[in-house]
Amino acid sequence: MKNSTKKENTMKKLAIVLSCCALTLSATAASAAGVYISGKLGVTVTPTLTASGADGWGTWADDISFDTGLAINGAIGYDFDTFRAEVEVGYQKNDFDSSENYNNGIYTGTTSFVNGDLTSNSLFANGYYDFKNNSPLVPYLGAGIGYANVELNHIRSDAGYGSYSNDDSVFAYQLMAGVSYAINKNVAIDLSYRYVGAANPSFDEGYGSTTDFEFSSHNFLLGARYTF
Fold this sequence. Notes:
By secondary structure, the protein is mainly beta. Helices cover 12% and strands 70% of the residues. The protein has a single domain (31-227), classed as Porin, CATH 2.40.160.
C-alpha cells in the first residue's frame, strides 16, 4: 500500500514538472503581440548587372561585377500575432570589381576599377506571415514594396579616367524568408534572406547621353526584434 501511494505521489510530481516545462516552453515560444522595433546587419550580393546607353559614337553596354558588400536595415512595426506589418529603412553598398565593355555590340575589353561603389538607400512597407508553433523557432515569409535611391559613386578605372557619380529614385520591392528564435516573450533573434529588385534607374549624363542601369541584390541578414 505504501509503495502504491509513493508511486502515485511520484507520478503526480512528475506530471507537475512536465506541465511546468510545457508552460515554460509555450511562454518562450509565444512572442508578444504589439509594437516592435528591429535591426539587422549582413551581407549583400549584387549579381553582374548591365549598364547601357547611347552617345555620339553609338550604343554601348557594360556588364559590371561587384564585390560582396554591407547591408543594414532597421524597422518599426506591429505584431498582430501571426501577421506583422512594418515600415523599414535600409542601406546597402557594393564596391565595383570590373566591367566587360561592348560598343555597338562588339566586345572592346575589360575595365578594372580602383574606386567606385553602388549604394542604395531604401524605404519599404513590409508584411510578414509567421508560422507560429509550440517551439521558439518560428519560420516566416514576407514581401515589401517601396522605393530605392540607387547611386553610382566616384567611379574611376585603373586607366585613370575621371570620377563619376549619379543617382535615381525608383520603385522597389523585396521578397523575404527567414526564421526567428524567441529568447523570451519580448526578444527574438532573426536570420533571414531577401531578394531586392527595382525598376531600372536612369542616369542623365548630359550631352544627350542617358544610362539605364539594372539593380537587384541577394541579402543575408542577422538581427534582433524587440516587442514592447
